[in-house]
Hints:
- There is one protein chain.
- A six-stranded mixed beta sheet has the order 2-1-3-6-5-7, sandwiched between helices. Strands 4-8 form a two-stranded antiparallel sheet.
- The chain starts with a strand and ends with a helix.
- About 65% of the residues lie in helices and about 5% in strands.
- Helix 14 packs antiparallel against helix 19 and helix 14 packs parallel to helix 22 (about 460-485).
- It has about 550 residues and is of the alpha/beta class.
- Strand 1, helix 1 and strand 2 (about 30-35) form a beta-alpha-beta unit.
Amino acid sequence: MRIPTIAVLTGPQPVDGDGLLRTDLAAIGATVVDADGPASAARAVASASAAGRVALVDRRLVAHRHALRLAIDDPRWQAAHSIGVLTVSGPARDQLATQLRTLPDLTAHRVEGVSPAARLTAPRPLVPDALAVQLAESMAIHEVALPPGLVATLVDAPLAARKEAYERVANTDGEAIRLRRAVKSDEDLFTRLFVSSYSRYLARWGAHRAVTPTVIRMLSVLMAAAAASTAATGTRPGYVTAAVAMYVSFMLDCTVGQLARYSLNFSSVGSWLDATLDRAKEYAVYAGLAFGAVHAGDDVWRLAALAMALQTVRHHLGFSYREGNHRRGEQPAGQESAKTIGYWFGYVAREVVVQPAGGRWVLLALLTALTTPRATFVTLLLWGLVAAAYTTTGQVRRSLASAEPRSSQAIDTLYAMSDILARPTAEISRLGSRLGWLVPAVYHAFEYGIAIAFAAEVHGATPLAFLYLTAVMYHHYDIVYRVRAAAPVPRWLTVAGAGGFEGRVVIIVLASFLPATPAHHVLTYTFAALAGYLWTLFLAESLFAQRSR
Length: 549
């Protein structure tokens, strides 16, 4: 559902009027009103609905329609500024109205009888750019970066200058720029060549028919479920069908993001769903392959659990490296290698080694279609170990070369990601060291490894350990997404989550040593109970937290 927007035209009147600007604003769904000065602008701001946005737009603005859309329609910012446009919503709207009421009204200088000298000394007309500078002193304002090629400029006089700006707008294909920007600039090679080359057109088709990202997202989930179900048959036709379904699911997943960027249909809930469902779909396919292998007479649950654990630890190494070092002035991973090796060879080689999302999905799909589940998991494990060694070595080297201390905020972030109860001085010192960002991933790897190792010694326990690990991994990913969204990680959740990392490890170790019969082992019931309890706790709490934001 589109948020209603009021576009308030203000500032000096251009030499040829503002008819085209009004038309473009109305075309993107904004209600256009005029404001002669601060008082009328304040009334327009106050008249907006509680859920609406207000955009102060300079009448002299000449811009592509998509430049206006980027300046006005992006819901991620309470206050945003682009050339000639100041957009506010929520609390920022009230703050803008208060600011406007403190400015002098200019209407008195337009009445008959005012001397020319008085007109020369009158305050300047209300200009959105100047107001944004004033407002930035008391609140955060996002500066909108327009894509190269999109025109957005203020032109008052002479008329020839405005005509030249109109020609620049007419000679640039704004829709092509909009479609190109719907695709992420950092997409991996496989996705760029074999998915985004056509999925962006599907995204545009959906945007013009009011299809929401949620609809495409659910279709992607259904295709992943179909892939897991057909893989669970343990037959070659089932594996081939699963591979096709995996590709379609990934294509739809890419379309979700492209549709959101094309239509500027963003939400915190949507971002959270994308992040969590991506992992859920991948690990559901792992489970389907393991079921299929057992059906065919080959138990690969341990390999499936190890592949899932390795991939999760790899992700968390990257997460903790970025969150723990982004305030230390370190160079982001990947930039240094792009400068020191040949561009194309280095780019392709790194794509092959590192296994980004697109490459990992195509590898999983090809292995599923052409080999067995055992060969699939063994290949994923070996390739994942090489990728982990490659990326982690570079990150460790950069960390050791940095002498800047880690901020207290970064230490708090790493502590939250560690999912531990105790916080002694030694732990703070460990997290604050140059390699402190490794700590969360090391804790996770230890917990996952303990669960897999002990489950392997008990008949029938590994599938339940797999289910237990999915609950814990969901929680660990959820912590990362909260950190990225600057949302709190409740302390009680760590305590309630079976005592965090330390508590869960102790429970598993104790259960593994309790007396048991060949057919019944306490560890099996422990994994089942923990999986049910932790999934209920973590999922319910994260859903409630998302609704409360």
